[in-house]
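Progress report, Aim 2. The chain analyzed during this reporting quarter is listed below.
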Amino acid sequence: MSKVVLITGCSSGFGEITAKTLAQNGYIVYASMREMSARNSVKAEALNAWAREAQVNLQTLEMDVVDEDSIQNAIGQIISRSGSIDILVNNAGWGGLGFIETYSLELAKNQFEVNVFGLFNVTKAVLPNMRRQRSGLIINISSIVGRAVFPMFSMYCASKFAVEGMSQSWKYELAPIGVDSVIVEPGIYPTTHFFEKLQSNSPAPNEVVNSDYGDLANMPQAFGQKVAQMIESGNFNDPQLVADAILKLVNTPYGERPIRVVADPMTETLYKPYNNEAEALQKKFLEMFLG
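Predicted structure tokens for the chain:
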């Protein structure tokens, strides 16, 4: 029997590609996004049309990860239609960049509302079903900046560090009920409207502040130009690599999945030793306190 997958943030990018990849591999996929009757209506219909043409079991679903009623309604629909949720992919994300002096508390909170508390909300909502069936898989999309940082990305980095901490703790916490918690760490992928979204979620430049920070103030513009050059040259990571990493985790039996997967060929050789050392330290830490 095909397993049922719920994926958040499927209007574009990793979510959309992962939804298509898992559906093409025989999974029953619920591709969720917010504002399906408004700004994402065209994207939702395009994904549904693709599913009909590809003859796969993929359905779009209205869900806002920061709205608990929306989450409960969406999960209720899935259980009613398919009977269970076997796999959750927490992909929805929100990011911006800027000096901390220019950040409003509202902008800072927005990143945590989606990246941390939204992920928390959806995970908490699917767990009663997974606990009853004594099985399940939660895949949390973090980032390489959940382990190392860029300047001016402090709030985004902090939110992804939080995702790493929650996911690692859940790995142990959920083991008694047969539920696995794992992390995928993408690198820089110029997905659909990547830099436009980043800019729209960032504080407005402040010339007085910027002048005192010197050349670092030019980092957002330089970063955007670098991404644009990568896109134009074709020399950038293919987002399909992230979907393939998720598919591999989904197909791996319980007990054999690594806690972290680095989905970035450019930095994988740097991060793998780091993650391995961190995991060894984590095990020693638990042994010290829990025996």
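Residues 105-133 form the longest helix (29 residues). Residues 4-290 form a domain with the Rossmann fold fold (CATH 3.40.50.720). These observations will guide the mutagenesis work planned for the next reporting period.
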